[in-house]
């Protein structure tokens, strides 16, 4: 009797969105963490060439040129991902269209402000990294600690959640 109950409850959990969305969310977050952990060393290599991959006589990229290429690539991948997720959303979100996306400006001013702050912060971080070293610039930024603080304290992301959400 107890085994059937466990199997029935596990079936509900596996069919329901909790485990599916949690595992997908964790996989996406893990991949994002890998990307974030590699982009600063890649930027450092682009400007300082510690591995001596440039041919003799080729000057190193300055921080402004590298930041320009970084910004253009962020813009391009942002457009590609946004259009892809509009028509093929993840986590059972509703499909949308480019027209609906362009017409709906409800709350978009905050998203634009967030993007401007992110771009400005990245530019200053890269310039500070060129001057003081990229390890110092990354240590000052402390993204995981700061974003966790904002999420828990200011936005109350874990308030009124059951324990299984935190421990999964």
UniProtKB/TrEMBL annotation:
<feature type="transmembrane region" description="Helical">
    <location>
        <begin position="21"/>
        <end position="43"/>
    </location>
</feature>
<keyword id="KW-0547">Nucleotide-binding</keyword>
<dbReference type="Pfam" id="PF07168">
    <property type="entry name" value="Ureide_permease"/>
</dbReference>
<feature type="transmembrane region" description="Helical">
    <location>
        <begin position="134"/>
        <end position="156"/>
    </location>
</feature>
<keyword id="KW-1133">Transmembrane helix</keyword>
<protein>
    <submittedName>
        <fullName>Uncharacterized protein</fullName>
    </submittedName>
</protein>
<dbReference type="GO" id="GO:0016020">
    <property type="term" value="C:membrane"/>
</dbReference>
<dbReference type="InterPro" id="IPR009834">
    <property type="entry name" value="Ureide_permease"/>
</dbReference>
<keyword id="KW-0067">ATP-binding</keyword>
<feature type="transmembrane region" description="Helical">
    <location>
        <begin position="111"/>
        <end position="128"/>
    </location>
</feature>
<dbReference type="InterPro" id="IPR030189">
    <property type="entry name" value="UPS_plant"/>
</dbReference>
<dbReference type="GO" id="GO:0015505">
    <property type="term" value="F:uracil:monoatomic cation symporter activity"/>
</dbReference>
<keyword id="KW-0813">Transport</keyword>
<dbReference type="GO" id="GO:0005274">
    <property type="term" value="F:allantoin:proton symporter activity"/>
</dbReference>
<comment type="similarity">
    <text>Belongs to the plant ureide permease (TC 2.A.7.19) family.</text>
</comment>
<keyword id="KW-0472">Membrane</keyword>
<keyword id="KW-0812">Transmembrane</keyword>
<feature type="transmembrane region" description="Helical">
    <location>
        <begin position="63"/>
        <end position="90"/>
    </location>
</feature>
<dbReference type="GO" id="GO:0005524">
    <property type="term" value="F:ATP binding"/>
</dbReference>
